[in-house]
Amino acid sequence: MPIYQFEAMDATGQEIRDEIDAANEEEAQTTIRQMGYFVTKISVKKQAAAGPAGKSGRKRGFAIGGAKTKHICAFTRQLSILQDAGLPILRSLKILENNQKPGKLKNALMDVCEEIEGGATLSEAMSKSPKVFSRLYVNMIKAGEAGGALETILQRLADFLERAESLKRKVKGALIYPVIVVLVATLILTFIMLFIVPTFETMFEEFGLTLPAPTLLLIAMSNYISGYWFLLIAMPICLLITVKLMRKFRHGRMGFDMFIIKVPIFGSLIEKNILARTTRTLGTLIASGVPILEAINITRETSGNAMFERMFTRVNDSIREGEVISKPLAEFSVLGFHPMALVFWALFGSFPGWVLMSIALTAKGTKLDDGTMVETLTMMGTYAVIGGGVLAALWGFTKVKSRVVDDLVVNMVDVGEETGELDTMLYKVADTYDEEVRTMTDGLTALMEPLMIVFLGLAVGFIVISLFMPLVELITGLT
């Protein structure tokens, strides 16, 4: 039988603190009232010894990482409905916890229920599970508790999470088609290089033909893929690991994040997606009653980009000095110069050249090395590395004075501050950028199909011409 700790007032107004054994909380309150006391606070006494299953003895399922966003969205919406119906928060949480499948969210809800039974508030209990309930989530709950409008805050939080998840699904869904097309095209070209081209190479050797430059290049590429296929897998993996390691350092992360939001085509999509997310986050926090400085700090942590983090940090410092948001937002949103960003631009531009040079190095010393092809490929690769790297670095240098927050956002924030409707204006900005992200995603998806057709046509055309040029020469010689 659980032990309940309670605080109560007697008939003289004196405060009483004691413990009582009861089957449940209702029975405990009834017994205390029969003793002539008025209950002011009651909770289950925390047990000093807890088994491995947890304080309550309930078994927790094994789970790795955090909870899925869609599960948190559904939980928040259901909790807002239960609170709107007037159910006690602990009962609502237990109902939802019983309906959850075993996993991280269910385990977290068990912990939250136990913390609340021990006298903690909902925000305090949720803060003990940071892998499930983010700082943004906890602070909004805290603001709702302070303002006595928890059900309203939960509705806003559910709306926010659902819109963010919807945009994420939209972008992922739009990328499925081009990824499948690229994968199929890669498999087709790989099959041609591994099985078709070597057959023609053997035939050309038997006839002793002098092969033209395009055919030599095609055979060199085929040999490269068949002999060094592991490099095609290792190079992207090594590149990804290198970028991740460089992003572990402050300057490396800043340089890469500056580079990635200005990459042609996809950079603009990433930048607008971050703007939509950050403005909606800030607007939701302000509408929920979170203090402006705390709201900006939370928005900074959820931006996911070092450039935006730096901007929000400086905006926060300016607000502490008495400035409004719009002025530092315009001033500190300029990209600026960063040497590591130029390094990433140079690597980006020189990548095709390195591929050409690797093909030339693998062909050197083989039967394809006729004294001209390898030398030509090496020279072309060197020029491509130097020229591509320099041109890409110059392109990145032209972006130094560009801004990540345009005049639309600054003007809307300025109007919101003047009218006292900052949260409404931030919502409008977020809606605008959400729509732009959807439009750009649909446009890129529609553009990928003709681009892939053109690429496949050029690739297959190059292969056909390279293989038929020696055949035409052979047929002409036989005739």
Overview in brief:
With 479 residues, the chain is mostly helical. The chain is 72% helix and 4% strand.
Which descriptors apply to this entry?
elongated, mainly alpha
Structure report:
With 479 residues, the chain is mainly alpha-helical. 72% of the residues lie in helices and 4% in strands. It has helices at 25-34, 69-84, 89-99, 104-117, 122-126, 135-147, 150-207, 213-227, 229-247, 250-260, 266-287, 292-303, 306-320, 326-331, 339-363, 373-397, 407-419, 422-478, and strands at residues 3-9, 15-21, 38-44. A three-stranded antiparallel β-sheet has the order 2-1-3, covered by helices on one side. Strand 1 (3-9) and strand 2 form a beta hairpin. Helix 6 (135-147) packs antiparallel against helix 7, helix 11 packs antiparallel against helix 12 and helix 17 packs antiparallel against helix 18. The relative contact order is 0.08.
Largest sheet: 3 strands, antiparallel
Based on Cα principal axes, name the global outline: elongated
Describe the strand arrangement of the main beta sheet, using strand numbers: 2-1-3
The percent range for strand residues is: under 5%
Low-confidence stretches: 47-57
Please give the radius of gyration in angstroms: 32 Å
- Total number of helices: 18
Tell me the series of helices and strands, N- to C-terminal: EEHEHHHHHHHHHHHHHHHHH
Query: Share of helix among residues?
Result: over 70%
DSSP E strands, number: 3
What is the first-to-last residue Cα distance? 103 Å
